[in-house]
Design goal:
Layout (H helix, E strand, L loop, with lengths): L2 H12 L16 H12 L2 H12 L4 H30 L3 H9 L1 H30 L18 H18 L3 H29 L5 H5 L17 H10 L11 H4 L11 H24 L2 H8 L8 H9 L1 H29 L5 H16 L3 H4 L1 H29 L5 H4 L6 H20 L8 H21 L1
């Protein structure tokens, strides 16, 4: 038996997720598996929050519709020509590939941060599902400005949902993929139905009337910033920055037969991050015409952005079910990714148990509505932190020959801490975060410059250190 076969057998016994070896040919999946997963993951819980949040920023019709069209295209291209291309070349998880470049000690800190940030995102999706489950119990919904749990009913519902979602995620990639395939058609139908019902309630009968819902834009709600075309385009491109230019989805596309499977992300972007965002925004537009919302706005308070009641008002029980499933289909793969990050820190612990740990952290985060209510800012922040590490992998893959550096230098030189990686990330993160804070620059605007600078500095520092 070859060494690879021995390792493959060990991986099968440990759970079959191939955390530290390339995925074998027998386990590769066709593009159909990814189509369902991406459609389900991105036509999901976040969409019920992000769509309404766009309205709170006072965005105009042109800026929203055209900005989303182009921003999502850039995201698909990033997945196809960066993430999927590298994933099928090496077929390794992000965490093991980074370990080969960065060294175990450095990547441990990255994995911890990555896992926690994914847990917080999954927690926001548990929050989304809870707003639907709580309707029959007459639960008080979280407000846009809420940060803490608002009652015992909320706590019990979030804990129960978190337990179920964590159990599904702990079963591994195949179960996560199957769950997404089963749920995504229902969720997509719900978004379409919500959009149609909302258009009827808004009495929209023509394109011009549809356009006038946003019109030339308005003043942002209290506590929100004003979004322009560039805010929408750049934010929608980097809403999943950690997953595409940050290379997190190497862990997913390593199972793909061909790099062309990267095109399946278009299902997520244009069904979820386009149609679903706009449909959810329409639901919120209906709510903003209600006496309750007008009363809140008149006293300077932002109306609540609770997906459950919005969907319930539009399509009833089907809307409640759709919101619950939508939260699941985002939380499941997100907790799975977080589990893989923790697995890299604790390689002797089974995939099942590290995923349960990740799910527990996500459930605790779900108790705090702030992660969902401030989702636009949180998504920009976690992408900004994690994306530059993806530049390390991308720049080494494409430019190591031109730079004259050794690939996977930490593994080759038996380094535990590759200082070239650390200082490249620290300088790029520190410089552009300072610019964002000091000059009040929207954080997504500096994500790409930070990513490019990190990659370039990595090549320069690696050349110097390896030569020395």
């Amino acid at each position: 038996m070859s060494q690879f076969n021995i390792e493959e057998e060990i991986e099968e016994i440990a759970g079959g997720e191939f955390e530290r070896v390339p995925v074998p040919a027998s386990k590769l999946r066709s593009w159909k598996s990814f189509l369902g997963m991406y459609a389900g993951e991105h036509a999901a819980g976040t969409e019920f929050v992000i769509g309404p949040l766009f309205l709170t920023t006072g965005v105009s019709a042109f800026d929203l519709i055209v900005g989303l069209l182009l921003g999502n295209l850039l995201a698909v291209l990033s997945w196809r020509f960066l993430t999927a291309e590298i994933a099928v070349k090496y077929r390794l998880t992000l965490y093991y590939q980074l370990e080969n470049i960065c060294g175990k000690n450095l990547v441990t800190g990255y994995n911890l941060a990555n896992g926690l940030l994914f847990c917080f995102l999954a927690g926001a999706m548990i929050t989304v599902s809870a707003t639907a489950v709580g309707i029959p119990f007459d639960m008080e919904m979280p407000k846009l400005t809420d940060t803490m749990p608002n009652g015992i009913t909320w706590v019990v519902i979030v804990l129960c949902l978190g337990a179920v979602i964590s159990l599904i995620a702990s079963k591994g990639y195949e179960t996560v993929s199957k769950a997404a395939n089963w749920m995504s058609p229902v969720i997509i139908m719900a978004f379409v139905a919500c959009g149609i019902v909302a258009l009827n309630k808004l009495e929209v009968n023509s394109l011009s009337e549809f356009w006038s819902i946003w019109g030339e834009g308005a003043e942002p709600f209290p506590g929100q910033i004003k979004f322009t075309f560039w805010h929408v385009l750049i934010w929608s491109w980097f809403a999943n920055a950690a997953m595409h230019i940050g290379m997190s989805d190497l862990s997913v596309f390593r199972f793909a037969k061909k790099a062309s499977s990267g095109w399946t992300t278009a299902a997520g972007m244009y069904v979820g991050h386009y149609m679903a965002w706009i449909a959810a925004a329409l639901l919120y537009a209906v709510y903003l015409k209600s006496p309750e919302a007008k009363a809140l706005l008149s006293i300077g308070e932002a109306p609540t952005v609770a997906p459950g009641p919005l969907a319930n008002d539009a399509i009833g029980i089907f809307g409640i079910i759709a919101v619950v499933l939508a939260g699941w289909t985002t939380a499941n793969p997100t907790i799975y990714r977080a589990g893989l990050a923790f697995q890299a820190i604790m390689p002797k612990v089974s995939t099942f148990w590290v995923t349960i740990i990740a799910g527990s952290v996500a459930t605790i985060a779900g108790l705090f509505p702030a992660f969902a209510m401030k989702l636009l800012g949180f998504v920009a922040f976690y992408g900004f932190i994690l994306a530059p590490f993806g530049a390390i992998i991308v720049f080494e893959h494409f430019f190591y020959k031109q730079a004259g550096i050794v690939k996977n230098y930490a593994r080759v030189a038996n380094l535990k801490f590759n200082s070239a990686v650390f200082f490249a990330w620290l300088i790029s993160f520190g410089l552009f975060y300072f610019i964002s804070v000091q000059f009040n620059v929207f954080l997504s605007f500096v994500t790409l410059p930070a990513w490019l600078l990190c990659g370039l500095l990595f090549l320069v520092f690696s050349k110097f250190i390896q030569r020395r």
